[in-house]
Amino acid sequence: MRRSSDTFVFTPEMGARLRALRERTGLSQGQFMLLAGRFGKGAGMVASRLERGKIPYPSLGLVVDYLRTCRAGFGQLADLLGPATSKPVPSERPEERSKRLDSFVASVAAGASVEDALAGLLDSHGWNLSPRQRRALLSTMRRMWQLAVQWPRNWQRILARNMSRPITEAGRVVVPAAFVEVVGVELWDLIEGLD
């Protein structure tokens, strides 16, 4: 999986905080991991790497097991997690979003079909979608656009109803709701700009 340069990374400071919590228990890394229910040949090495911040994307389960075994909570990491969670989501940065929307308008103005412009808007996110996911998301974008244009008085309600649902096929989620919501918000801005 490709990750944005702004993706959250577990830092050495967070690892040091976990180390301090473990040391408070008086247990070695191996003993600690055994008590946490994580055992095996490499359990001590996992603890060591985590405490040094050498596992940039640890599982939530690992961090929860660590905190639970220390009789601590995420509050112990709050001051370190706070700045990371207050950053804007990369796809929601106003300047990037504005460029994508301007590109869409310029494409249509230059004679491109709305469908091609929607495909360009979707591709500009750089998401790693399978062809099936891309087709499904593009189809949903096209449907939302057509409904909004067809019913100009109700376009806000139509988009709001459609942009918070995952795309499913045969009862299975093909595209999570988060992706649909991002493109739905962009379509909202586009249509609102046309009014």
Strand and helix map with partners:
Elements: H1 12-25, H2 29-35, H3 43-51, H4 60-69, H5 78-85, H6 94-109, H7 114-123, H8 131-150, H9 155-162, E1 167-169, E2 172-175, H10 177-194
Antiparallel strand pairs: 1-2
Short description:
With 195 residues, this protein is mostly helical. Helices cover 62% and strands 4% of the residues. It is elongated and about 70 Å long.
Describe this structure in words.
The structure is a single chain. With 195 residues, this protein is mainly alpha-helical. It folds into two domains: 12-85, 434 Repressor (Amino-terminal Domain) (Orthogonal Bundle), CATH 1.10.260; 90-194, no CATH class. It has helices spanning 12-25, 29-35, 43-51, 60-69, 78-85, 94-109, 114-123, 131-150, 155-162, 177-194; strands spanning 167-169, 172-175. Strands 1-2 form a two-stranded antiparallel sheet. Helix 6 packs antiparallel against helix 7 and helix 8 (131-150) runs parallel beside helix 10. The mean pLDDT is 79.
